[in-house]
Design brief:
CATH class of the largest domain: Mainly Alpha
Bound molecules: heme C
CATH superfamily of the largest domain: Cytochrome c-like domain
Strand order of the largest sheet: 1-2
Number of domains: 2
Order of helices and strands: HHEEHHHEE
Distance between the termini: 70 Å
Radius of gyration: 31 Å
CATH architecture of the largest domain: Orthogonal Bundle
Largest sheet: 2 strands, antiparallel
Strand content: 5-15%
Number of helices: 5
Shape: elongated
């Protein structure tokens, strides 16, 4: 057989070369694959959206929870402009992730009540101060942010 002559050629049909046949076959196949991939992505998206909307605890959080109110106050007064939580935030003031266990509740309150020469006095209400303290307690109990206390492994995972 001459090189380039198709093994698929039939009398009366257009005589494609082997390469052309392979190309045509791939094009036909890839169209089907594309459609199948698209349809499965649409289905996966629909299923995942359905799953999320039926399983996520969105709207089930109690807004009366002081920790959540404290987080709202934390955002309202933009404490993270100067403070970090787990290293994220502004760097004018210290990381406050573990301030609750390191310094205690009264110390935190004192800062909120008086401010410092650098940290503004925000005139928080009694309720807001309690809520922010509850929020910082919640953050503190979620883990340890000091990188020196974190064990690092060769594969990039860490252990607290
Ligand atoms: C303008 C920047 C700034 C903002 C905004 C700010 N702080 Fe501060 N904060 C500081 C600085 C700076 C310090 C360190 C004390 C100092 O140098 O005056 C500090 C210290 C603290 C401390 C003591 C930390 C420690 O380990 O000694 C607490 C607690 C604190 N801030 C809470 C808050 C809270 C809660 C908010 C939001 C309501 C807030 N801060 C907003 C700048 C800020």
């Amino acid at each position: 057989m001459n090189p380039g002559t198709s093994v698929f050629s039939r009398p009366g049909l257009k005589n494609y070369s082997t390469t052309q046949n392979v190309h045509l076959f791939l094009r036909m196949l890839s169209d089907k694959i594309k459609i199948a991939a698209f349809v499965s992505l649409v289905l996966a998206f629909a299923a995942y959206t359905f799953y999320l909307y039926t399983h996520l605890p969105v709207g089930q959080q109690k807004t009366s929870d002081p920790v959540i109110r404290g987080k709202t106050a934390w955002q309202k007064y933009n404490c993270s402009a100067c403070h970090q939580i787990y290293g994220l935030g502004g760097f004018l003031g210290p990381d406050l992730t573990n301030v609750y266990s390191l310094r205690g509740k009264d110390y935190i309150r004192a800062f909120m009540i008086t401010g410092t020469t650098i940290m503004p006095q925000f005139h928080l209400s009694e309720q807001e101060m309690n809520d922010v303290t509850a929020f910082l307690y919640g953050v503190d109990s979620s883990g340890n942010a000091d990188p020196r206390s974190i064990k690092k492994y060769y594969d990039g995972t860490i252990e607290q």
